[in-house]
Amino acid sequence: MSKPAVTKAVNALIENDLLLSTKKAENNKEVYYDITHPGRELAVEHDKLHKIIEGKYYDLFRTFSEEELDVVIRFLDGWSKLI
């Protein structure tokens, strides 16, 4: 991820009151970030959604044989090299 992309994402989190940024008086270059209470709540919900989708992926993968999964992996590997 590029530095401008990280900056844009961090700024969006700050604008939405999900993250706070502070600077120390003795060193104005260093920026410290703290997650807000709403940011923490959102992170918890985000983690829950990840667990749900991981379970769905696991259930889907179990429907394929080892050989079928090998073909899918080969395809995705080749495709990712093209993009």
The average pLDDT value, as a whole number, equals 96
* Distance between the amino and carboxyl termini: 16 Å
Q: Based on the structure, what is the oligomeric state of the protein chains?
A: single chain
The shape is elongated
Number of strands: 2
Which structural class best describes the helix and strand composition? Answer: alpha+beta
InterPro entries: Metal_resp_HTH_trans_reg (IPR052067), WH-like_DNA-bd_sf (IPR036388), WH_DNA-bd_sf (IPR036390)
Protein name: HTH marR-type domain-containing protein
Keywords: DNA-binding, Transcription, Transcription regulation
Write a brief caption for the model:
The chain is α+β, with helices and mostly antiparallel strands and 83 residues long. 66% of the residues lie in helices and 18% in strands.
Describe this structure in words.
Helix content is 66%, strand content 18%. It has 83 residues and is α+β, with helices and mostly antiparallel strands. The longest helix has 25 residues, at 37-61. The model has no long low-confidence stretch (mean pLDDT 96).
